[in-house]
Amino acid sequence: MDRVDTPAGFRFSGMASGIKKSKKLDLGIIVSDRPADCTGVFTLNKVIAAPLIVTRPNIARGQCQAILVNSGNANACTGKQGLQTAETTLELLAEQLQIADDLVAVASTGVIGEPLPLDPFVTGIPQLVTNLSPDQATSVAEAMMTTDAFSKTAAVMEKGKQNYKILGLAKGAGMIHPNMATMLGFVLTDAQVAPELLKVVLPQAVQKSFNSITVDGDTSTNDMVLLLANGAANSALIKPDTFEAEIFSQHLERVLLDLAKMIVRDGEGATKLVQIRVVGAENEASARKAARSVATSALVKTAFFGEDANWGRIIAAVGYSGVNIDQNRIDINFDQVPVAVNGLAVGAKREAEATRVLQQDEFVVTIDLHQGKAESSYYTSDLSYEYVKINADYRT
Amino acid sequence: MDRVDTPAGFRFSGMASGIKKSKKLDLGIIVSDRPADCTGVFTLNKVIAAPLIVTRPNIARGQCQAILVNSGNANACTGKQGLQTAETTLELLAEQLQIADDLVAVASTGVIGEPLPLDPFVTGIPQLVTNLSPDQATSVAEAMMTTDAFSKTAAVMEKGKQNYKILGLAKGAGMIHPNMATMLGFVLTDAQVAPELLKVVLPQAVQKSFNSITVDGDTSTNDMVLLLANGAANSALIKPDTFEAEIFSQHLERVLLDLAKMIVRDGEGATKLVQIRVVGAENEASARKAARSVATSALVKTAFFGEDANWGRIIAAVGYSGVNIDQNRIDINFDQVPVAVNGLAVGAKREAEATRVLQQDEFVVTIDLHQGKAESSYYTSDLSYEYVKINADYRT
Questions:
Q1: Rounded to the nearest 5 degrees, what angle is found at the Cα of B5, between the Cα atoms of B1 and B7?
Q2: Which chain B residues contact residue A78 at CB under 8 A?
Q3: Interface ipTM
């Protein structure tokens, strides 16, 4: 992480506190030098982890100055004791930073149903605060990792009438079924943004990024995305319905989509990043539904892994998506290569070309329904032997 | 297949016609010595294979005397040529048997999007008819196999006031996501059953069996279950709303559930058969929804493969199922061993016992929601390395 990418007024610190038996980084904090305006998006799962129960009311107040995150244990399904632990860790950090408790957010990711030990926080938090630095964002990103193969950060810089930066940190690794991969995202900007604008742009950007790799509603017990704007860049306030607001929104989307693609690419055992693009749909909801159906089909994903141009599985996944279709009007392309036209195979020569597309580690599958003008994309990965290995042995 | 299990008046024949490159059995016929009353259940996929388009109107007329089935090619997404091929094969069999075209049903399973060759039918059908025999049901079951590791037949015999037999043949192998595993089922009885009763009992039995291993609506392009009753046992007509109808219905359910469990056990790469039983639900629909959510979770299934008593994944899958729950009231048992009580872990000793349950090749996961009195079960398998291997290499 280049210093250049770090928004002003934010400091970071990460460490190995002992929650993970592996002695890898597992505890981190992000601190703003002033209370930041903030908003959040939280899991829709009805089983909700303790840190979310503790954090949501704080974020709802609209101000946040510090984030405490641990990996190795999700503090989910841990009852009253888990709630107590989440509250205590929050208070420990607030006390060390000498800020109000309700300016702190806590997040956890890891195994469900095991008590989160308090000791690593008691000994770790003072050290973390001592070591706070503007150039340690990567340490926090690393301290968030569970099955992630690499840490995930993305940044943009606006240099125009306004000057500000947006930095995103995320953890998460794509799944066959994305329904339980905890996704944490922390997005920090030194821009000054109207609070009501924050509340609008974050859900929009999440929809086009994290929610286009995971299935809406099918979220883990711990999912959370927070956006903090501390205004430390000293640029003018970005108000809703302005050109500057549009620019900010686009930058935010870019950062979140970059992170989302990293999550797909870090799919557990994934070797390919595939954009499933449905065009010619009646409306956007239909396009999304069809794209999601294809993107989450285990058979489609194993065919990608096998580099098998098996468009039959794709058209069948569109067929059971529930979207209005005419099977005799569907075209499918792998990048620029047509493999099905009017629902029929285009022949062995084209299929050989399509197979070469599939041998790439990144490609686009375009499905034209010829029903209308709407389109939508999902990002998915292939499904490999490694996926099963990682998840069968996860807790051992 | 013991002769004893074969209902009177049905004959069978199977062969290797050359559709499969492997030279395994791939073409079969089932013939009744008289037109049988019949009914069917067909795929809900909007992409529908040619044999279904051709067969459905015939079955709708309520009479069927012969079934022609091939594996190795699904004749799906094959356009007008595919429809023509399905019709021609149907006519070829009708001609050989000297029966009306509309007494014949055709079914196909295998690769999607490749033309089904006609030659194997032209040369094969006369041979099949010549070799018809009451004791060749297993040959037909074998000729239906695609990724199936074993052929599937199940039978019951009623000996009471009535004497009749029910024989079921099926193909299909369970999937992570069952959404594209073609499921074919042919159920034959020599009982005489009122046509209106047939129409009621088949969908009911399918719901409790094949639809409790596969996700309703998420079906392949070729799914089809046919029930033929030819009355050759010369027992009294079974009428609706009678004790005899109830007995028949139970027998039918038993045959279909036996076949359904075989399909799960033959899950591609599966090593375990797991019943996901949700009890204490508000209503049956909720119980079904929660059970399905758990049964189709790739993370739950990989944990079964890893023999990891990871109940956190189970409770999270219940959480995102959309069903009303209170996470603090959920109990989870592996067979008789409690692993979670009131949404909390019960401790390491119990988990060790639970791990021993998971080491079995068949067990029951009971999830008590404590919301009401309804219950429902899904049957699922574990998810192993083999699944990925089989599906990545399917067409090669």
A1: 120
A2: 344
A3: 0.72
